[in-house]
Amino acid sequence: MTEPSAHLRATADAYDAVAVRYAELPRDDLTALPLDRAILAAFAESARAAGAGPVAELGCGPGPVTAHLRDLGLDEVFGVDLSPVMIDLARHTYPDLRFEVGSMDALDLADGALGGIVCWYSIIHTPPEELPAYFAEFRRVLAPGGHLLLAFFESEGEPVTPFDHRVATAFRWPIDELAELAGAAGFVEVGRLLRAPHGEERRHRRGRLLLRVSSVAPE
Questions:
Q1: What keywords are assigned to this protein (predicted)?
Q2: Separation CA 90–CA 25 (nearest Å)
Q3: Beta-carbon-side half-sphere exposure of residue 137 (alpha carbons within 13 Å)
């Protein structure tokens, strides 16, 4: 694995510092979020139908979404996060699952090794100018027919907008612009979802994009 960029290192340090308290937050409690459960279920069904290989949650934090994907019937699912403290928490909470320290912009995986990738709010801290390289890496490690699910904060008619996230600066994206950026890297859109914030989320509309690897190579 190559040395992570400055913003990745800073983000990992910030999450290391708050990991225990962060794991106690209801951020990934899906029981009250039926729309989120629905798109995760659609992703899992698509990944199983494609049969293209294991599924990775990149930026898995303490692991609840990785575990939820396992519970949806994905047998080969594992989590990757740059924060060693988060990975320790995930391994302790879900000892039956595999979790690895790694950087999602330089994955220690062979070309075409994965059948699916979930990025559940894990691209939100990426500076916009660096995001195309992330999508190129996702495209590299996904097999033909592989799927990608993105969860992010949507900009609600504004351009790409930074905001003061609880842990580190994050960015809100126009859903069309994010879909276009993924398309340039070799993905085609399968579906999308926009929902209002729920309960303790308080602010910012949520966006989800379900994509799959295009049969046409990116230019």
A1: Methyltransferase, Transferase
A2: 14
A3: 17
**Residue at token pair 């699912």:** 77
Question: What is residue 10's three-state secondary structure?
Answer: helix
The reported pTM is 0.88
* Selected residue with higher pLDDT from 216 and 191: 191
Tokens of 87: 């990975």
Contact call for residues 120 and 65 (beta carbons, < 8 A):
yes
DSSP 131-196: HHHHHHHHHHHEEEEEEEEEEEEB-TTSSSEEE--SSS-EEEB-HHHHHHHHHHTTEEEEEEEEE-
pLDDT at 75: 87
**The two structure tokens encoding residue 149:** 């699910």
Which homologous superfamily does the CATH classification assign to the domain defined by 6-213? Vaccinia Virus protein VP39 (3.40.50.150)
